[in-house]
Amino acid sequence: MSITAHLRDYDSATIRTLRNDLALALRAAAHHGLSEGVCNHFSVEIPDESGRFLLNPQGLLWHEIQGDDIVMVDTQGERLAGRHPVESTAMFIHAAVHRIAKKACVLHTHMPYATALTLTRQRALDTALSQNAMRFQGRVAVDEHYNGFALDASEGERIATAMQGADIVFLGNHGVIVCGERVDYAYDDLYFLERACMMQVLAMSTGSPLVPVDTALAKRVGQQSIGERLQSELFFKALGRVLK
After folding, report:
1. Residues of the chain with pLDDT under 50
2. Contacts of 198 (CB under 8 A, 6+ apart)
């Protein structure tokens, strides 16, 4: 595909909407305290089976990112459109998760409470504790093997393979990846994942024994949560009204 074709696609109505949605998710994450400096990345695949995807650029704080700042890249990390550079670690992780795990939207953060749980022996959220946690019942994988910065394609591929098809992966001693079929659904999961992790960390800090519910009940509540995706859409629209 020619440079002209990439630029034409980048400015199309469909991709412009995706760029704006991705930028809103980044601003929302900053608003909710889920960002870390200018690190970490959100991406969304362009729905045309080309392998191209949209990604936040290197060097911008999440709260300042707008749709025009989002970059379009290919699976090799080549920037196809957009005015900013991209970070190599973003390419290695996100390209692999899109390609191997077949995820449309990929959100990677070092958000504090979820990351705190990756430092524990359990490594992850207990999805039978709080109601918020139950929405992730059966959707979580754990990658226990921290392997340093993702500075080559093999590390991204290792992480993507460790996901084993799960929507969420807790990366030991590192952070989390949350995936979804749409930006609004993925962001809603990211937000409530951190809330669930916060509740667990606070409960653990009391020193009292934790009391999970029966797994069957947690699974039923999880299915109910996934059936309420209208809430995800309304939440994201509300964020769009207040985070310009």
Report:
1. none
2. 113
- Tens digit of pLDDT for each residue in 22-80? 999 999 999 999 999 999 999 999 999 889 999 999 999 999 999 999 999 998 778 99
Distances (CA, A) of 148 to 112, 119, 201, 235: 19, 14, 25, 35
CA 169 to chain centre: 10
Can you give the CATH number for the domain in which 32 is found? 3.40.225.10
Report DSSP letters for 167-188, one per residue.
SEEEETTTEEEEEESSHHHHHH
- Whole-model pTM: value is 0.96
**Which alpha helices (DSSP H) does the chain contain, by range?**
3-10, 13-31, 88-100, 112-118, 131-134, 153-162, 183-205, 215-226, 229-242
- Domain extent for 176: 3-242
Closest by CA to 140, choosing from 173, 118, 110, is 118
Task: Judge residue 3's burial from the number of C-beta atoms within 10 Å of its C-beta, 0-12 exposed, 13-18 middle, 19 or more buried.
Answer: exposed
Number of folded domains in the chain?
1
